[in-house]
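Q: Hi! First time doing this. I have a protein sequence and I read that you can turn it into a structure. Is that right? Here it is:
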Amino acid sequence: MKDGVPWLSFGVMGGDHQAQGQTQVLVNAIDFGMNVQEAGEAARVNHGNNGLSVESAMPDAVMTALAERGHPVQRAVGACGGYQGIMFDSRTGVLMGGSDVRKDGLAIGW
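A: Yes, that's right. Below is the predicted 3D structure, encoded as structure tokens:
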């Protein structure tokens, strides 16, 4: 909800990554102002038993900074779930769908 009206409905699958992925998508949408596609498509990080799994689209400088702070860091493929979401523009009544390139799927709303 945003200002008392529906704003964003979404989900991120991926077992242990679900809560982490959902938080990262929300940060992308709220704090970084990304649209529904950008918010789900942006590179994500997964914290697990072996440290941080970082997607290949994450800049090397970020990986280096994490390692310098003592985090075990590795490049990951497929560790960050899949996402679909629908964002509602209350001004226009338009529903905008976003679907993750990581997995099969689509976002549908009416």
